[in-house]
Amino acid sequence: MQAGKVPRHVAIIMDGNGRWARRRNLPREAGHRAGGEALRRTVEACRDLGIEILTVYAFSTENWKRPRAEVRALMNLIVEYVRKERQALIDNNVRVIAIGDIRGLPEATRREIEGVVEATRANTGPILCLALNYGGRREIVEAARSLARKALRGEISPDDIDEETFARELMTHDLPDPDLLIRPSGEMRVSNFLLWQMAYTELWFTPVLWPDFGPEELRQAVESYQARDRRYGGVHPEET
Ligand code: FPP
Q1: What's the fold here for domain 9-134+177-225?
Q2: Is 147 a pocket residue for ligand 1 (Cβ < 6 Å)?
Q3: Atom of ligand 1 nearest to the CA of 209
Q4: In the predicted model, what is the mean pLDDT of residues 53-77?
């Protein structure tokens, strides 16, 4: 890895599980299971590279449209993953947080997520942020609603609302914006993920399907990131 700034916050859309399974004549659930393995590898690889925050899109507000059996399998898999990984996450000082409508998840999944969030609350190492029942538009609408309520109660004036106050209402209020978004499986869209937060995020796409993703792909993504010129809409001082 060439010297250069490592992204502080990496976000990943874990896509391609279904296609990975189909190519092997396996049920889609097998793809999601292999996707869980890829997540485990990637959490470790992030730690090795010094990435502070990894946010993964595990279930979107739109994923409820999938067949009931697949949704159920995914929810069970999340429970299984958390149970299996819980001790390793604690031992590795990882803090797990969750964004999305966690209360809308099935009881067992909700409990498991809340449990690992609580068990790792005091950890000071890397952050693993699980986006579950998450949708970027819904998050923005909720933030607007919360600010409107505060204004109605007279706690704020509408004129006080700016980008900073708005961002504080988002579920990511404690996190810096992602520096790098990775989307495997050849799809090149954002799919309602972290819409507000990705205003200046660098995007990296790969045809590799998520279950095949690992340290090598992460290294390629980070190297590509390090070669980018982030100007945030401005110009470099030497160009002025
Ligand atoms: C998208 O692939 C993937 C998902 C909707 C689920 C991601 C979930 C996991 C990797 C399980 C592990 C997660 C946690 C938090 C333990 P797809 O099914 O849309 O793939 P396709 O586009 O090839 O059909």
Answers
A1: Undecaprenyl pyrophosphate synthetase (3.40.1180)
A2: no
A3: 23
A4: 97
Inform me whether the pLDDT recorded for 211 exceeds 90: yes
226 CA → ligand 1 middle, Å: 27
In this predicted structure, the answer to whether residue 238 has a pLDDT above a threshold of 80 is no
pLDDT of 119 above 80: yes
Express each pLDDT in 167-190 by its tens digit: 999 999 999 999 999 999 999 999
Find out whether the beta carbon of 34 lies less than 6 Å from any atom of ligand 1: no
- Which of 196-202's residues contact partners 24+ apart within 8 Å by CB, and which partners? 196/136, 196/139, 196/140, 196/166, 196/167, 196/170, 197/170, 197/172, 198/11, 200/230, 200/232, 200/233, 201/11, 201/177, 202/7, 202/228, 202/230
Domains of the chain, by residue range, sit at 9-134+177-225
Is residue 15 annotated as a catalytic residue, yes or no?
yes
- Of 81, 60, 216, 218, the C-alpha closest to 138 is 60
Single pTM value for the model: 0.95
